Amino acid sequence: MSGLKLETVACDLCGESHASLVTRTTDHEHGVDGVFNVVRCDGCGLHYLNPRPAPEAIGQCYPGDYYAYSGGRAQSGGPGVKTRVKRLIRANRSLSAVAGMIKPLRHLATDIAIADDLPGWIKPGKVLDVGCGVGAFLDAMRESGWATAGIEPDEVAAGRAREKDHQIVCQSATDPLDEAFAGDSFDLILMSHSLEHVHSPTQALANLRPLLKPETGRLIIEVPNLESLLTYWFGELSLAFDTPRHLYMFSPDTLSRMLQKTGFEVHSLRHIARPVQFVRCLRLLSKDRVPTEWGEAAARSLSDSELLGALQPLARLAMDRGWGGAIRLVAGRR
Fold first, then answer.
1. Which residues lie closer than 8 Å to 191 by C-beta, 6 or more apart?
2. How far is CA 170 from CA 74, 132, 207, 208, in A?
3. What is the DSSP string of 114-170?
4. For range 146-157, the mean pLDDT
5. What is the distance between the terminal CA atoms of the chain, rounded to a whole angstrom?
6. Which of 278, 255, 270 is nearest to 327 (CA)?
7. What is the pLDDT of residues 179-237, one digit of tens each?
8. What is the SS3 assignment for 220?
């Protein structure tokens, strides 16, 4: 085992201290030293890492080039013409409906990918991105007229997001939230591939619930799907098992029950499947098992754009059958 400081914990969903070993795995992505146990709670079936990196040591598991901390240049000056037009369209229900029927303007009437998960038209309001990295999602939302805020535990990434004039608090989502975040203030809270990283998902969700506007506010969570085609085919190389950074591995059932336990009502849950999810697993597989002399050729083959196209039907099948590499859930306050 590595010199990483570890801690042993009970199940965060039901409190059960007894769990069964599922697999022992290593860090295939970034090479953090050690062998880590993935266990299944004997009480409720939640999968999690145990023992796991302690809160004060988890930063050692994230390299400086971690994907969420890259990109996102600071912006200067006022919004351009395209941004102003987009804000005008999104602020008016009638204009949004007309733009949505005109193909060249359709993208101006939507709030990027999350529009598919929001019921009908929603006027831009205030959005909080939990685990915002350098603020790429917040950049896009601001272009649609949203007031933007974020929570990010990495100081460097938080600083880069703050440079772009987003309201950013540098802390863990499980810590008591900054007084700047008033109750009932957010129309939308996003946790995209961040809930599986926190040391207590139930505490993080309990902290966020009072911030969401009653009745109209929406929480959108996307996490890797433990019960995906990727897991069935690739096992510990799948999206769910990015140990030791992923402290929890969620199925649709355990994620839904965690939301219900923390005072949310689940409105919808759907599967997300993309060709790049399969390419990532194939890349890790070739990294681990392809002979060194073939490594360069294997990497080139996986970067071929035609491969993404060939995998698109497989991704659609996985999504249709409920085997998507990720699950996205929309909830409101109960």
1. 130, 131, 173, 204, 208, 219, 220, 221, 222
2. 18, 10, 15, 15
3. GGGGS-S-----EEEEET-TTSHHHHHHHHTT-EEEEE-S-HHHHHHHHHTT-EEE-
4. 93
5. 43
6. 270
7. 778 777 899 999 999 999 999 999 999 999 999 999 989 999 999 999 999 999 999 99
8. strand
Structure tokens at 32: 């953090």
- The answer to whether 316 and 269 are in contact (CB under 8 A) is no
**pLDDT tier, 74 (very low <50, low <70, confident <90, very high otherwise):** very low
Q: Rounded CA gap, 209 and 259, in Å?
A: 10
Number of CB atoms found within 10 A of residue 119's CB: 9
Beta bridge partners of 223: 327
Contact 224, 250 (CB under 8 A): yes
CA 151 to the chain's CA centroid: 13
Give CA–CA dist 32/66, Å, rounded.
Answer: 13
Residue 263 three-state SS: coil
pTM above 0.90, yes or no: no
Q: What size, in residues, is the chain?
A: 334
Q: What value, to the nearest 5°, has the Cα angle with vertex 214 and ends 212 and 218?
A: 50
DSSP 177: P
268-321 pLDDT, tens digit per residue, is 999 999 999 999 999 899 887 778 788 788 888 888 888 989 999 999 999 999
DSSP 60-115: GGS-TT-GGGS--PPP-SS--HHHHHHHHHHT-HHHHHHHHHSGGGGGGGS-GGGG
Question: For residue 290, what is the DSSP state?
Answer: S
Task: Name the residue with tokens 């603020």.
Answer: 135
Cα–Cα distance for residue pair 49/15, rounded to 1 Å: 15
Rounded to whole angstroms, how far apart are CA atoms 259 and 293?
48
The DSSP string of 2-59 is -SS-EE----TTT----EEEEEEE--TTT--SS-EEEEEETTT--EEESSEE-TTTGG
